[in-house]
Amino acid sequence: MESICAAQYLRMSTERQEYSLDCQSAGIATYALEHGFKVCQTYCDEAKSGLDLGRRTGLSQLLQDVVGGKQAYKAVLVYDVSRWGRFQDPDEGAHYEFLCKEAGVKVHYCAELFTNNGDVSSAILKTLKRVMAGEYSRELSQKVFAGLVRLVKKGFRSGSLPGYGFRRMLVTADGSRKQELSRGERKSIATDRVILVLGPPEEIFWVREIYRMFMQHGTSLVNIADELTRRHAPYLPGRTWSDYAVKRILTNPKYKGTVIYNRTTEKLSSKSRRLPESEWVLVPNAFEPIIDAELFGAAQEKLRLRHRNRSKEVILEELKSILRAHGCLSHRILKVHGISPGGIARRFGSLIKAFELAGYQSPHRKTSEHRIQVRMVRAELMQQLTGMFPNRVSIISGSWRHKDFLKLKNGPHVAVRVCRSIHLVSKGRVWALQTVEGKRPRITLMAGMNAENTAIEALFVTGPLNNPSKRHITECHEWLQSGTRLNGLQSFCNVVMSRQRV
């Protein structure tokens, strides 16, 4: 009897290495031999949580192949229900299995005691197993959270970045100090812990200077950031001073020696959200402070009285008053009045929108629309690449101030830059290359749009361009000539990997 071609799906969880991939594969091989299957393709999600589909490139590719009719197999073999997923909604796991069933591909759970043949008893047991798999994750999440809270209440640090003015110190279980951890370093012994200690004297000086300027002189956050930049105060690697950075220092309780935990949550792979203060875990006097608690409290009270905590209506009235005085509104004028342009943009969605609500039509509206278009095209291009190479290309998210980029499996990071076409009298049609802040990977995917700016016209894989200002480039530009022009996205991964080896 000829064996039936089948695919196997393997997944090893990040939360608990319960079944190794080899163990799953061996169990599936035994099942395949006993039931007349031959494993002809493997999909794998190594060290991936089973809570959602978004980060599981293996299962995503399996579903794409099955729904698209690209598969040569007639069955999918999975070790057990929990390897298929620990979805919090059991219907989600059932939905993905149903997609396979509709395409004529049956899912077999090799280590389960029931046969997945569609009868009432197997359907009940399978649903129960799905619920149990999801419940396991919920219980584990609660236990891990309780353990972290217990450590935090002892004054230990939870998190990798200490922030400005502090450093992480590795200590033993009894509190004896071992060594200071550098950026990116982690503890390697399970019983070791991490605490916060004061950073370099220069950083401590500038933290106290921020509080002095704010409390004694009433300097706005924007002007404090400008003053720090003018006086060449050092900041975090790759970052520059801003009103947002100043606000974080003025509002974070760690500067008065308080450990703070559980301000945000991403439990069970949910979208990150901020929690109310009633749910925060605060441990006063956990480590040496930079400023005293009384000064910190006074700063919070002063911040509460500032315009940032006023209603949108009050802020709009202030913008209208500035508009009457100057006849226009701009980024520079707001800073002159001590108003944070970034804060206004966050409250109203954009500066242009806030200006319009205040009764001013900005001449820069077109530029804003162009930026939005570029962001949309860039996002679509990155999604297209991850869809074409689900097992090789992923998107690494940046902060709200810095762009995200692509990451190749076992390969480099790749910056993605989309350039609109413009027409200059002196040069003709060119691509407008905007300034980029933050981290710059040494490989860049540059996409130039067509003359109508309706689609991408040309793609280049090249190196970084540290442009201090806006540039106008053509296909003959030395930056593009030093790279490789792509005939299509199909060759993207190979060209990037070959460039990395150069």
List the helices and strands and how they pair.
Blueprint: E1 4-11, H1 21-35, E2 37-45, H2 57-67, E3 75-78, H3 81-84, H4 90-102, E4 106-109, H5 120-153, E5 166-171, E6 177-181, E7 193-198, H6 201-216, H7 221-230, H8 243-251, E8 259-261, E9 264-265, E10 273-274, E11 281-283, H9 293-304, H10 312-326, H11 331-336, H12 341-348, H13 351-357, H14 365-388, E12 393-396, E13 405-408, E14 413-424, E15 428-433, E16 443-449, E17 456-462, E18 471-473, H15 478-481, E19 484-486, H16 492-501
Helix pairs in contact: 7-8, 12-13
Return the structural class. Answer: alpha+beta
* Gross geometry: globular
Fraction of helical residues: 25-40%
Quaternary status of these chains? single chain
Write a brief structural summary.
With 502 residues, the protein is of the alpha+beta class. The protein has helices at 21-35, 57-67, 81-84, 90-102, 120-153, 201-216, 221-230, 243-251, 293-304, 312-326, 331-336, 341-348, 351-357, 365-388, 478-481, 492-501; strands at 4-11, 37-45, 75-78, 106-109, 166-171, 177-181, 193-198, 259-261, 264-265, 273-274, 281-283, 393-396, 405-408, 413-424, 428-433, 443-449, 456-462, 471-473, 484-486.
